[in-house]
Every structure is written in structure tokens, then in C-alpha cells.
Amino acid sequence: MVAAGNSLALNQGIQEEQVVPARYRQEFLTIAWEQVHLRSIFPFQYFSIGASLIPFIEHNDANRALMSSNMQRQAVPLSRSEKCIVGTGLERQVALDSGVPAIADHEGKIISADTDKIKIIFSGNGDTLSIPLVMYQRSNKNTCMHQTPRVPRGKCIKKGQILADGAATVGGELALGKNVLVAYMPWEGYNFEDAVLISERLVYEDIYTSFHIRKYEIQTHVTSQGPERITNEIPHLEAHLLRNLDKNGIVMLGSWVETGDILV
């Protein structure tokens, strides 16, 4: 039995209320206060994480709130994330619970901080710890996972302090988008119904640019005509299509490839 957090009998420890509203197996009941096992601490417990991140959700249409909470799962980390100006206050807790940022387990002092690791010396026993950082790794959704250090060298840190931001976090808070100027107005019919008209500055200045990493695998088999082999000697192909391949027929590191280019 989960009782409401604003119940007078549960808050002040008095029995002025003989019965309290409670939740049991997704049903709302009214029970005696002696039967309560747990209580709601935070009002956001009634909603999911996506719904709890929608500002002023009580003023939204129910269908639009459902769409907003589901569409947050489609968000991708931006190359330059930004904190939201209008939020619900749950952004920091969501970022901490996700495990994406690097958090200090003990208090100490930063010895060094670079792109791949952070070294800390503990203030108690003087031991040192090297915390590796994630650098441009692929996630299960083909997005880019990267951690950026946020503490300078020589800074004293406390337990639980943010050491490095991860994908879609800034300052230890969830940052899924950008703070842009939005106008609710018609514009020569281009934003009819669900259409959205954006400025070309958002494209040229990489405001909403995101990085995606894909992994490609290839297998060679032994056929009746002999074993297959990987090579750059492919007949009937233009030299332009083979420009990025090395002598073994594998694309070289640092090559700029486009749609239709051969990788292996």
C-alpha cells in the first residue's frame, strides 16, 4: 500500500485522519492509515521519467503529453549540448541515475585531467585513482558516447561531485536540446498543420548537429570456386570508387566517405 505524500497523518504523525488515499496494484483506494506500507515522497513518482521532464504538464492536453513523453526516447545527443532554461527540476537526478556522467566516489584532489582519463589523489590515505573516460564510442542506438572532463587540475573535489559530463549532459544535468527562439505564427503557408519552418542558421552553425557511429561487419566464405578474399583489385569499377581503400581492400583511417562508397 502506497499512501499519498501529502497525507496529514503520515506527515505529522497524528491520527486526525482515520483513512488516507493510497495506491495498490495500480488502483486508487481509501484505507486505514495502519495498513499503509510506503508513502509517496516525490509527486513525480506518479509519472514516468519522460513525463516528469515536461514543464507544466498539468496544463497540457493528455494526448500531447503522451506524445511528448514517448518522443523523448527518440532524442539523440547533440555535439554541443545546452541546459534547458525552463525545466522541472528533475534533470539533474535523471542524469545522475543514468550513469552517463563520471562521479567522484571519494573526496580528494585532481592531479591531472585530460581527454582520456582523470587522476585523483585521495585526501585520507593519499592513494591515487585513475578514472578512464569514454571517448567517441558507439551506443546501442548508433549514437556517439563521449565524456568531457569538467574539473581542472589542482581542484579539490567532494564525494558525489561531477567529474566529467557525458552524452546529453551539461554540468551534471540532462540536456536534450537547445534554447532557440520560437515563433507561433503562420509563415506563407510553409508551416501548415504539423510543418515546422526553421532558420538556415540552425543548419550552417551546427545548432542541432549530432554524431552517429555505425559498425559494419563482413564475412568471407569458402565457395565451390575457392575461398573469398578481401582485396582492392576489383574489376569493372572506376578508380574513383576505390580511392579510400588500402592495398588489402579495407578503407583507410581518416577517410571521408559518402553514400555509395566502398568500405571493404
Automatic annotation (TrEMBL):
Its EC number is 2.7.7.6. One of its GO terms (molecular function) is ribonucleoside binding. GO terms for biological process: DNA-templated transcription. InterPro entries: DNA-dir_RNA_pol_bsu_ext_1_sf, DNA-dir_RNA_pol_su2, DNA-dir_RNAP_su2_dom, DNA-dir_RNAP_su2_hyb_sf, RNA_pol_RPB2_OB-fold. It comes from the Eukaryota. It comes from Corchorus olitorius. Residues 114-264 form the DNA-directed RNA polymerase subunit 2 hybrid-binding domain. This is DNA-directed RNA polymerase. Belongs to the RNA polymerase beta chain family. Keywords: DNA-directed RNA polymerase, Nucleotidyltransferase, Transcription, Transferase. Pfam families: RNA_pol_Rpb2_6 (PF00562). Gene3D superfamilies: 2.40.50.100, 2.40.50.150, 3.90.1100.10, DNA-directed RNA polymerase, beta subunit, external 1 domain (2.30.150.10), DNA-directed RNA polymerase, subunit 2, domain 6 (2.40.270.10). GO terms for cellular component: DNA-directed RNA polymerase complex. It catalyses: RNA(n) + a ribonucleoside 5'-triphosphate = RNA(n+1) + diphosphate.
